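A brief tutorial aside. Many learners find it easier to grasp structure tokens once they have seen a single protein encoded end to end. The record that follows does exactly this for TenA family protein. Read the sequence first, then the structure, and try to relate runs of similar tokens to stretches of the chain.
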Amino acid sequence: MISAQLWQANQDLAQACLEHPFVQGIANGTLARHKFAFYGGQDAFFLEAFARAYSIAAAKAPDWEGFSIFHNLANGVLEELRLHESYATAWDVDLRNVEPQPATRRYTDFLLATAWGSDVGLIAVAMSPCMVLYGFLGQQLAQNGIAEHSYSEWIRTYSSAEFKQLAVQLESLCDRYTSMTPLVHSTYRYAMLCERDFFQAAWEE
């Protein structure tokens, strides 16, 4: 499977994200609130671009099943945004007036350029790291149980069976519409690098 090969080829970046102090701060609840608030605003901006990329992919899907799956995945992003809205309300973050930072803008520009300019398979490849990585992080952080603290809901969301199913659906589209090429490999890796840099930017806030 192409998706499994790509994930395995990028385990170094997956581990770097897992071990990142931002993610570990979520794991044990010690992450400074202002860092998470910054991340929440940036991630909401990112997710809006992510939803648009899914919609573009749906329009390009060559078959009805792919079209339907992409739309279902877009609905999953809208659910994820509701989680961010609950955080925003609790922590006084204005999600409507987020100024995207360079790491966020690099990621969203890459995703939307790929969505508009590439075939449906490469779009799925560019979007997969976000879903698969977050499912991986959630499951890793939840494997010994989820302690109650400020970030417990984040861990519950991304370790859930429902989120895992969305990631599996997206990976199935990678396998359906792509074959392994240097461009596929480099696109996936670039998205993984964007994920790492996204956490780093939030940590440095």
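Self-check: The chain is about 80% helix and 0% strand. If you spotted this yourself, you are ready for the next section.
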